[in-house]
Specification:
By secondary structure, the protein is an alpha/beta fold. The chain contains 10 helices and 8 strands. Helix 9 links the parallel strand 7 and strand 8. The N terminus is likely disordered.
């Protein structure tokens, strides 16, 4: 995942078994380390789960929360995701908080209501001020691995709506919260997407696995 405001920041979120290896590899680089999920509990008997404390043991500062695949495959509800966001914040990690609508939801004209519901769950639990320490990643689930790509205009419209929804709670926080685009960003469309007014960077999936492609996207930021 990359993020750009004044300066670009590149965050590499890796599967837990590789955290130590990647931590060692990026020691003398500008790369930042993150995890792909966390357990909501700080400690306890949760065999196989990864807590915020474990993530921090590897020097990581970021964690992906509520990725569309976690929501669909592991049935993580908006409430579960909000609790994970709070668990990350409680433990000094910055959540990359993923939101977005499915093809069915978009087809029914529900993009705005879906992302509002997903964001509202975090506001209800943690308050709007929590977004001072949250990065939002908008994933149009219908544009991930489907061959269907959102146009820059569709992406910008969604990001603008997300920002306006935050602004209805707090105008300053709406401006300062980074909103990343996560829907099949690649070297061919990164410059145009990141050039959109309300798109602050990208949450990169498949293209991040090809070093040359990922470098091109990082340069776009």
């Amino acid at each position: 995942a990359g993020m750009s405001d004044v300066e670009s920041k590149v965050i590499v979120c890796v599967p837990s078994p590789y955290m130590s290896q990647v931590e060692a590899l990026i020691t003398h680089s500008q790369l930042n380390l993150g995890a792909q999920d966390l357990n909501v509990n700080a400690s306890g008997a949760f065999t196989g789960e990864v807590s915020a404390g474990m993530i921090k043991d590897f020097g990581a500062q970021y964690v992906v929360v509520g990725h569309s695949e976690r929501r669909s495959m592991h049935e993580e509800t908006d409430e579960v995701v909000a609790n994970k966001v709070q668990a990350a914040l409680d433990n000094g990690l910055t959540p990359l908080f993923c939101i977005g609508e499915t093809l069915e939801e978009r087809g029914a004209g529900n993009m705005e209501s879906v992302v509002t519901r997903q964001i509202q769950a975090v506001i209800d639990l943690s308050g709007i001020d929590a977004f001072k320490n949250i990065i939002i990643a908008y994933e149009p689930v219908w544009a991930i691995g489907t061959g269907v790509t959102a146009t820059p205009q569709q992406a910008q419209d969604a990001h603008k709506f997300i920002r306006s929804m935050l602004a209805s709670n707090d105008a300053d926080i709406a401006q300062s919260t980074p909103i990343l685009y996560g829907g099949s960003m690649n070297p061919g469309n990164a410059v145009e997407l990141i050039g959109c007014k309300d798109i602050d960077g990208g949450l990169i999936g498949g293209a991040s696995l090809k070093a040359e492609d990922f470098l091109q996207i990082c340069k776009a930021g």
